[in-house]
Design a protein that fits this description.
This protein is an all-alpha fold. The chain contains 4 helices and no strands. The protein has helices spanning 13-21, 31-44, 54-77, 83-114. Helix 2 packs across helix 4 (83-114) and helix 3 packs antiparallel against helix 4. It is extended and about 55 Å long.
C-alpha cells in the first residue's frame, strides 16, 4: 500500500495525473457526416417532442438492436437458419442498426435544441 501507486502494477502516479488532466475531443468529421448524416439528423430532430429526453432516443435505438439480436438468435436456434427467413432477419438487423445510428445522432441535435447538451 505504501508504493504511491493508485493501482499497483497498473497505473503509475504520472498516469493518474495524466488521466486527471485528460479532456476528450471528438475526431474529425467525414464528408458523410457533414453532407448526409448531419443534415438528415437535423431534419428529424424537430419531430421529436421536447418532453422526450435525448437519452431516451439512444435507449430506443439500443432496445431495437436488442430485439433484432433476439430475432437473429431465434432464427438460428429455433428455425435452424431456415433460408426462407434468413433474408428478412438480416434486413431487420440492418434496419435496427440504422435506427440506432439515427437515434444516436438525433439525440445530440435534440439535446442542443432543448438546451440539455453539455458544453
Amino acid at each position: 500500500r505504501g508504493s504511491g501507486m493508485a493501482f499497483p502494477g497498473h497505473v503509475t502516479p504520472e498516469g493518474v495525473r495524466a488521466l486527471a488532466e485528460y479532456r476528450y475531443s471528438a475526431g474529425s468529421y467525414t464528408w458523410l457526416d457533414i453532407k448526409v448524416l448531419g443534415p438528415f439528423w437535423e431534419l428529424l430532430a424537430p419531430f421529436i417532442p421536447r418532453l422526450v429526453s435525448p437519452n431516451m432516443l439512444t435507449l430506443a435505438g439500443l432496445l431495437a438492436n436488442i430485439l433484432a439480436t433476439c430475432a437473429l438468435l431465434a432464427h438460428n436456434v429455433f428455425l435452424r437458419g431456415d433460408p426462407r427467413t434468413k433474408f428478412p432477419c438480416h434486413c431487420a438487423l440492418a434496419a435496427s442498426l440504422f435506427f440506432y445510428q439515427t437515434m444516436d445522432g438525433v439525440d445530440g441535435k435534440h439535446a442542443r435544441r432543448t438546451g440539455q447538451s453539455t458544453p
